[in-house]
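Internal tracking record. Fields below are filled automatically when a chain is submitted to the structure queue. Please do not edit lines marked as system-generated. If the sequence contains nonstandard residues, flag them in the REMARKS field before resubmitting.
Queue: standard
Priority: normal
Entity type: single polypeptide chain
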Amino acid sequence: MMGKTFISSGVIAAAALLAGCGAENASTDAAADGQPGAVSLKPVVTHEADPMAGRTLFVEKGCVICHSVNGVGGKAAPALDAQIGAPPVDPLEFAARMWRGAPAMIELQSIELGYTIYLTADDISNLAAFAADREAQKALTIDDLPETIRSGLLDERFWEMEDWDDYLRQGQEGDFPEQIEEPVEDND
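SYSTEM-GENERATED OUTPUT FOLLOWS
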């Protein structure tokens, strides 16, 4: 599975936009005609998704300080080991998961690095490809980490009360109001 994959994030975004807005029949022609409710779509954008470039970013950007793959890296945040039979790389979903964890990541980056990490769309696409590629992950060893990073790996979970394995599977932290079940009242 190693190699370059092309991701059409524009197609995914357009499908989500159309589904979310209930505008199945919207087109660029309708928007050009000024019809109410029409959605104008930009041309499709594709990003090269290179798992080996993602592996390099994972180390160089410092992701490995908190996250691990293949047993290499920190334990402060969820391990990003690729799962057997996982769906194809979806950089938009990967970015959405990062967004949900952003407050914790920003805090840890500020504490551990003294700054927050800047990522481009291509960086996120490459990191998503790395997170989904078992072969690229197997190639990462502790010897690939510079000494400054190796000595700074976080060996403790950031939040003791959080179950990071569930967080990784569900892609969210804590309970959201729409997910909290109301107690059932007994009217007997």
